[in-house]
Design brief:
Helices cover about 25% and strands about 15% of the residues. By secondary structure, the protein is α+β, with helices and mostly antiparallel strands. It has a single domain (about 35-160), classed as Enolpyruvate transferase domain (UDP-n-acetylglucosamine1-carboxyvinyl-transferase, Chain).
Length: about 160
């Protein structure tokens, strides 16, 4: 490739890069934020430890890791940067917990049902913009399962639930 800049400006055409020889390369693609968080949830619900290779490091995944840790999951990073997730034991006793959802929809929607499996009072909150996101379906579903949820009638963050164990 030539030394041209291939970052086009809006509505400006640019020449597509081309080569005149075979290319041999190895590319490591970043993980998916959505898949990383789903894999973390499934690992926390598993019956044995899980090794998650090359998880995406992002604010959302860090919020998920912190939320799961607060619910008793052990999560460590090994020497390769992979995660080792050890599900909580069934006899874990937790004090009152506050979970920061940030703007992570997976934390807002996947962690409350997990928290309902505990006997713990758990408060969920997030960034200001997250407080405008609808949570009524999740909250109503939890109530339908017999979980006590206090949201002040807002159907959004912040809300507190008391797990049914």
């Amino acid at each position: 490739m030539s030394e041209q800049n291939y970052s086009p400006k809006a509505k400006e055409s640019w020449p597509a890069p081309s080569v005149h020889h075979a290319i041999s390369a190895q590319v490591t693609l970043p993980g998916s934020k959505s898949l990383t968080n789903r894999e973390l949830v499934l690992s926390a619900l598993a019956s044995s430890p899980t090794h998650l290779k090359k998880p995406l490091e992002s604010r959302d995944s860090q919020l998920m890791i912190e939320a799961l840790k607060k619910l008793g999951t052990t999560i460590n990073r090994d020497e390769y940067g992979d995660l080792v997730i050890i599900p909580p034991t069934t006899d874990i006793s937790l004090s009152e917990v506050s979970i920061d959802c940030g703007l992570a929809g997976t934390v807002m929607r996947f962690v409350p049902p997990m928290a309902a499996l505990s006997n713990t009072k758990v408060t969920f909150d997030g960034d200001e913009a997250a407080r405008r996101r609808p949570m009524k379906t999740t909250i109503d579903s939890l109530r339908g399962l017999g979980v006590e949820v206090e949201d002040g009638g807002s159907g959004s963050l912040p809300f507190t639930l008391v797990g049914t164990g």
